[in-house]
Specification:
heterodimer, A: 195 residues, mainly alpha, B: 197 residues, 9 helices, 0% strand
């Protein structure tokens, strides 16, 4: 853990120094629909999932399930012996199907809206780090994913599970978590993109 | 005060999921399709919108989340009061919520997507979401490796159990939810007034 923090501390400023000038997100494409309409739709969707499936929307445990399934493929006994997987056996369930269907739903929305991109580097990243930064983007994204998964599992949820489902239930821990998601995110994003 | 929560939890009235397990999987499919569709339409599958939020330049994400919270709250709490739905509360553990939350946020800034929006980004053809998703799988396994050690210690520090904001300040849940929804709606008005996007 401590080593990860040290890497992060070293990584962030050194990336910033290698970078192009400040970028402005508003110069890049916005949402297709009103965010209020989309948010209200997600709110109504949460009524439906609570009522019909007795479930809340969440996404992060999908990745833990995939990790557990892969772990069982290579080291079955070891994976089964881990506390997390004793409590949450990696089986195809609600969240697995939900997240896979999320990919499909976004695909349908993008194709019908003419917004399908099919690219490896976001233009916003290119504006900051240049067109030849795919390897950097890959490494930073991979390390970010590791941190994010660890944080989500330790905090008990992600931007969906805590940030939307937990927050709309007025769950105290979810409000603490979501505020910290944004504090942590802002604290790293601003030096990375604006300094 | 009538607490439908305990009525729902203790009584035989515990509502079973209205959909049986195989149908539940089907419902997950439908819900996921809608969720992904909405995330993409809201721009939450776009790298510049997500990072733009963390840079406090683009407020789309906050608007989506707050609208979802307001609308969700105004449905879930009346439904819960009528014993039609169960709440799905997660334990409040300030230390884990804060430390995990900050680490999550740092990761969010690095990958540019979060676990749900990475899936939506992939669906939109933003293949770079795969880097972060691979990291999410690896990070989840690393956490699982440490779960025995964390669960018995740091993760439980300051554990307050499953509590809601109205429980914490000892006021009835439904009126609090309505008042809080109004407050958040006020925040949305302010965002609309003072932000470009």
């Amino acid at each position: 853990m401590r080593r990860l923090f040290v890497y992060l501390l070293v990584l962030t400023p050194s990336l910033a120094m290698a970078a192009e000038p400040r970028v402005n997100a508003l110069n890049f494409p916005g949402p297709a629909w009103s965010p209020y309409l989309v948010g209200a739709g997600i709110g109504v969707l949460s009524w439906l999932t609570f009522y019909f499936a007795d479930k809340a929307i969440g996404a992060s445990s999908f990745y833990a399930t995939v990790a557990g399934a892969l772990g069982r493929l290579f080291a079955r006994r070891h994976t089964d012996s881990l506390d997390y997987y004793k409590e949450n056996p990696p089986k195809v369930g609600w969240e697995t199907v939900l997240v896979l269907a999320t990919i499909a739903g976004a695909f349908i929305a993008a194709v019908t809206g003419g917004e399908f991109t099919g690219r490896w580097l976001p233009p916003f990243w290119v504006a900051r780090f240049g067109p030849d930064s795919l390897a950097l983007h890959g490494v930073v994204g991979f390390l970010g994913g590791i941190l994010m998964a660890f944080g989500a599992r330790f905090a008990g949820g992600c931007t969906s599970g805590h940030g939307i489902s937990g927050a709309l239930q007025l769950n105290v821990g979810s409000w603490i978590s979501v505020v910290c998601f944004f504090i942590g995110g802002i604290a790293v994003a601003i030096p990375l993109y604006l300094l | 005060m009538i607490d439908p929560g305990s009525a729902v939890k203790k009584g035989s009235a515990k509502p079973e999921a209205a959909v049986a397990p195989p149908a539940k999987i089907f419902f997950a499919l439908v819900a996921g399709l809608i969720f992904g569709f909405l995330l993409q339409k809201g721009g939450a599958a776009k790298f510049n919108i997500l990072i733009g939020q963390l840079l406090l330049q683009d407020w789309t994400v906050a608007k989506i989340m707050l609208s979802a919270i307001v609308v969700g709250m105004l449905g879930i709490y009346p439904l819960h009061r009528a014993a039609k739905v169960n709440l799905h509360l997660k334990p409040t553990r300030p230390f884990a919520n804060i430390v995990g939350g900050l680490v999550f946020g740092a990761g969010f800034a690095l990958i540019g997507y979060c676990p749900g929006t990475a899936a939506a980004a992939l669906g939109q053809g933003n293949w770079d979401a795969l880097f972060g998703m691979t990291g999410l799988v690896v990070g989840s396994y690393i956490y699982a490796e440490m779960s025995g050690w964390l669960k018995g210690g740091a993760q439980k520090w300051g554990d307050l159990g499953k509590i809601t904001l109205p429980d914490a300040i000892k006021v009835p849940r439904l009126p609090f939810a309505i008042g809080f929804a109004l407050f958040l709606a006020g925040c949305l008005f302010a965002l609309e007034k003072f932000t470009v996007r």
